[in-house]
Amino acid sequence: MDEITQFCGDPINAQLVALLEGAPISDDERNGWFDMLPLLNDSEKKRLIANLQAEILDFEAQEERVLTQMFRV
Amino acid sequence: MDDEEEVPAEASTVRRPERQAATTAEAREVDDSSPVRLVQKAVRTRMNEIADLRSRVMLGDAEAKKDMQKRLRDFAKLMDEVRSHSDSEIRNLMQTGFVDDITAAHGNFLKEGENLPESFVDENKRVAFRRHVFNELCAAGLFGLSIKDMQTDNDMQRGPRVKAFYQLAKQKYELAKQKLGKNLQTFEKICDQYDGHNFRESMEDLVDSEYVGRRASRLRERVDIGRDSLKRNQQELAGDAPQTKGRRYLLGFLREGGDIALKAAGVGLMIYGSGFVAAAGAGLYAAKGISEAMGYDFGQVVLKGVKRAKDGAKTSGKELLNMASEKWKDEMDPDLLRWLERAPATSPERLERASLGLKTRAKLFGRGLLPSAIWSFSNDAKADAPQNHIAEQTDTAEQKLHEICVKVVGKFASVKSNPAPKEKSKTTPESPSIEAPSAPQIKKAV
């Protein structure tokens, strides 16, 4: 199986891409990670996934908080 | 939609690894006395300094903030000098996007009206971002808008120049204003919160006071991950790793200075990834190398698919397959082949991050990647709403996976098969670090 096919079929990559898509990070960082994705090993990917999940959760909470305050009046 | 990306795309054509190689001090083996390299080095060094200061500012260092503003002014001056440099090669370098990338990036550090060249404050991004939010509202059926009101890419047929695109975007913005009517103020209020330079200001008062610090530390963690990975890769490739085709490319790339390029990308993460900063440019350093390393047949095929989809056609997995060479199909993983055969058609909208806003994001979480699909609909649900939306999201997941594959693979080959890899980032050019507010939240708000 060639490397690219393998890469595309790997669920951890799909998950990582999905998280990168949704994470509140700059597009440059996002694209930087997309570009670096083939170089990451599983443990690095897992670290990144955990980090991005935290980032998204935190952002969502802040977003909620900001919007609540903005529209309190 | 992607016109803004044309600038960095152009830039990528000049940023060959051998040039990038000289952008850091590590490039000892490269002749770094040529004027272009010296300039690049100088720019890079200053950007690094600013990035360091930036992270200190994020941690609340008032001294650093002052210093940073001064450095930014110096930087602007340097850019001006380079732009009118007597050496034509240097001027060309700047013209082909280098300066645009950098100014775009640093414009985001600034508040409007600060004492810097106009190019540092990008009004276009504001407009483009509003268009994005407007479309989100249409898609969500809010403010009395519907999908019919959306400003599609067909409306925005790009002219030959980026400038023309933005003129059109501004006209469209006026149109959107009319449609919004009495809701305009609320709309603006929402958008203001997300404008690169306004966002920081207004958010900082409202968010949890430790949020910025948490972001900074997560960013540092990510930078560490990137660095660890690069280090490991370099070590592995220097050793006797099995030489597959992909690896050979990668090895060649790294030997030719790609490692430096990747380091630059790591630095880019530091500069650009910081906090609320919406920026342009750095991933390009890595893009070319990786593309060369990994992108051959498969990528080209998908690339064509993406291009067609972007041109307005719907592209299904099957159509992508039809464009594939026999050789590639033979070599392909049967699972992926089967999946592509039944992957539903993907419309241009779906290929854009613009439409990956809230709804899609919620759906995406529904795949079980994150808890949960319904958190945006109810705060209380947050705690105990893990993965039970998976079933109903199967279709979306399939779509999404298709997009992801197209996207990831497109990246591999984008530079190789097309010197201006527009699809490299099919993301919204506007205020990229921030998602539009979620539909349910807006609903609440209205």
Describe what this molecule looks like in 3D:
The complex is a heterodimer of chains A (about 70) and B (about 450). The model of chain A has no long low-confidence stretch (mean pLDDT about 70). Chain A contains four helices and no strands. With about 70 residues, chain A is an all-alpha fold. The termini of chain A are far apart. Chain B is mainly α and about 450 residues long. Chain B has 19 helices and no strands.
Low-pLDDT stretches of chain B are 1-30, 106-121, 196-204, 251-316, 343-402, 408-446
Number of helices of chain B: 19
- Percent of residues in β-strands of chain B: under 5%
Query: In oligomeric terms, what are we looking at?
Result: heterodimer
Sheet with the most strands, sense and barrel status of chain B: none
Q: Structural class of the helices, strands and pairings of chain A? A: mainly alpha
Greatest interface by residues involved: A-B, 57 and 85 residues
Mean pLDDT, all residues of chain A: 69
DSSP helical segment count of chain A: 4
Q: Which residue ranges of chain A are poorly predicted, with pLDDT under 50 across at least 5 consecutive positions?
A: none
Number of E-type strands of chain B: 0
Shape of chain A: globular
Question: Characteristics of this structure?
Answer:
heterodimer; A: 73 residues; mainly alpha; 79% helix; 0% strand; B: 446 residues; 19 helices; extended; disordered C terminus
In short:
The complex is a heterodimer of chains A (73) and B (446). Chain A is mainly α and 73 residues long.
Task: Draw up the topology in text.
The complex is a heterodimer of chains A (73) and B (446).
Chain A lengths: L2 H7 L1 H12 L4 H10 L5 H29 L3
Helix pairs in contact in A: 2-4
Chain B lengths: L2 H12 L2 H4 L14 H24 L3 H22 L4 H20 L15 H18 L21 H19 L3 H11 L1 H11 L4 H28 L6 H28 L10 H12 L2 H14 L6 H6 L3 H6 L2 H9 L15 H12 L24 H24 L21 H7 L1
